[in-house]
Design brief:
heterodimer, A: mainly alpha, de novo design (two linked rop proteins), two-stranded antiparallel ribbon, 7 helices, 2 strands, elongated, B: alpha+beta, Glutaredoxin, 5-stranded mixed beta sheet, 10 helices, 5 strands
Chain lengths: 165, 241
């Protein structure tokens, strides 16, 4: 199989919903839908932080007091790209995959697991940085971590449901 | 239609996300970001009993501030200028070369003290800059850092992350970087900034830059070199030196 045909086939698999009735009955559609909605919270949070970064404005913390320390730290950008923008892209990806998963796109569900796993590890790292390196917490970053942890729980539930015989 | 529905939802959310982002971006542009940048010193200076317009107000005794203060010039100089400054305030950066010129012109007859008065949250990097300068001060290089931060204000004030910029300044002036990083968040640095702020509040400082000459506040309009110079000269003359 030549390369273009491989890609065409993979794309067809990715965008083709699983229409087998038996399989669909055990599909955790509600869990996928919940993941979609939860990811929108993370997307809104990340968009806010990205805009404040790009606009050069200071983010005001109302619950904790370390926003400026965290968001002006060297960890707030990766190779010149605001981490918040990376987060917004990640949450949008999760939203898209969860939505496709809810509509029965099997490959999207698998990619969702991979994406959320990466985000979970990244969030753990970022919380560690806030707690032990920067020694300040930013409420918007903590909200993002919380969203990712909830998404992780949902994805674990999805995988458990889908792996049932 | 059902097969297209998720893609329509995704495209719609992308559109909404971009619209919200754009709207947020525009919503802040009218904010009065210069609110604290406009020096209100002349307006808050209070009653001025001196007959000469622009003359310093009466001596005020208040909290001592960080001890020892960052000072240039001999302790027994007849004139001491005490500046309350915010490193991110544009008028403070404009005053910086004026003070330097006065120091050169009056030499040992003038002592200059700098006090931290970062206007947070209006100036998001003001506190970081104050910490950087104070951390440099713990290695005996406050003034070098002070000068670099003011001189290069335009190059860092809009940066998202000022920490590497100030670290580069720290490297440039030969600081021990590990110690500098530790000192940035140290209690000593925070205390110094707090004590200077306490003194500022006690003196009624509400804007930056605010300058006191021998304990009397110099109105902001008198901080131009052509006005400050005769004020200092008159003060020196009144002290008989």
């Amino acid at each position: 199989m030549d390369a273009p045909r491989i890609w065409t086939t993979l794309l067809a698999v990715a965008v083709t919903p699983d229409l087998q009735t038996e399989s669909n009955t055990s599909r955790p559609t509600l869990l996928y839908a919940a993941a979609s909605v939860v990811s929108l919270v993370g997307l809104a949070d990340a968009i806010y932080l990205t805009v404040e970064h790009v606009a050069g404005r200071s983010v005001k913390c109302t619950i904790v007091s370390g926003c400026s320390e965290v968001l002006s730290s060297q960890y707030a950008t990766v190779a010149g790209i605001p981490l918040a923008l990376v987060g917004a892209a990640a949450y949008f990806t999760v939203f898209s995959l969860a939505t496709l998963g809810a509509f029965g796109y099997r490959v999207a569900g698998k990619l969702l697991t991979l994406a959320v796993a990466l985000m979970f590890v990244t969030s753990l790292w970022l919380v560690y940085l806030q707690a032990f390196v920067i020694r300040a917490f930013c409420q918007f970053c903590l909200l993002s971590a919380l969203v990712t942890f909830v998404l992780t729980g949902l994805v674990v539930a999805i995988v458990a449901r889908e792996s049932r015989p | 239609m059902k097969r297209a529905l998720p893609f329509l939802i995704i495209v719609a959310v992308l559109g909404i996300a971009l619209a919200v982002g754009w709207s947020l971006m525009r919503s802040g542009t009218d904010a009065p970001i210069a609110r604290y940048e406009t020096p209100a010193v002349s307006q808050i200076a209070g009653p001025n009993p001196a007959n000469t317009p622009g003359a310093p107000s009466p001596v005020v005794v208040a909290d001592a501030g960080a001890d020892p203060p960052h000072a240039e010039g001999p302790a027994n100089a007849p004139v001491t200028l005490e500046e309350f400054g915010d490193f991110q305030c544009p008028p403070c950066a404009m005053l910086h070369p004026v003070i330097k010129t006065m120091e050169k012109e009056f030499g040992a007859r003038l002592r200059v003290i700098f006090r931290e008065y970062p206007l947070v949250p209006a100036h998001e990097h003001a506190l970081s800059a104050a910490r950087a300068a104070e951390a440099a001060g713990l290695q005996g290089k406050f003034w070098q850092m002070h000068d670099l931060i003011y001189t290069n204000q335009n190059s860092w004030k809009s940066a998202f992350d000022v920490r590497p910029i100030f670290e580069e300044y720290a490297t440039r002036i030969g600081l021990n970087i590990d110690r500098y990083r530790q000192d940035l968040t140290s209690e000593t640095v925070q205390n110094r900034i707090f004590l200077d702020g306490k003194r500022a509040r006690a003196l009624g400082v509400k804007g930056t830059p605010t300058v006191f000459m021998n304990g009397r506040e110099v109105p902001f309009e008198s901080l131009a070199p052509e006005k400050l110079r005769p004020l200092i000269a008159a003060e020196i003359a009144s002290r008989g030196k």
